[in-house]
Design a protein that fits this description.
There is one protein chain. With 78 residues, the protein is an all-alpha fold. 68% of the residues lie in helices and 0% in strands. The protein has helices at residues 3-22, 29-57, 70-73. Helix 1 runs antiparallel to helix 2 (29-57). It is elongated, with a radius of gyration of 15 Å.
Length: 78
Amino acid sequence: MDEQDILGRIHALVEEEHRLRDSTAEHGDAERARMAELERHLDQAWDLLRQRRAKRQYGEDPAEAADRPESQVESYLQ
């Protein structure tokens, strides 16, 4: 997966998140759960993108970057 693929995944997740947030209907448990899932997937995608860019910046192979578990990226401070 290259940076364009990751950015495409990020954009798709953000679009879905916006659709859910912008809907006029009240959000039920399923919608809230999906939004939380989207946020976790976005955190992972942004983390992977940052890893790839950092590896490239320091002369390493960006292909060595890997998805980190949700539990790890969720604990990062923004």
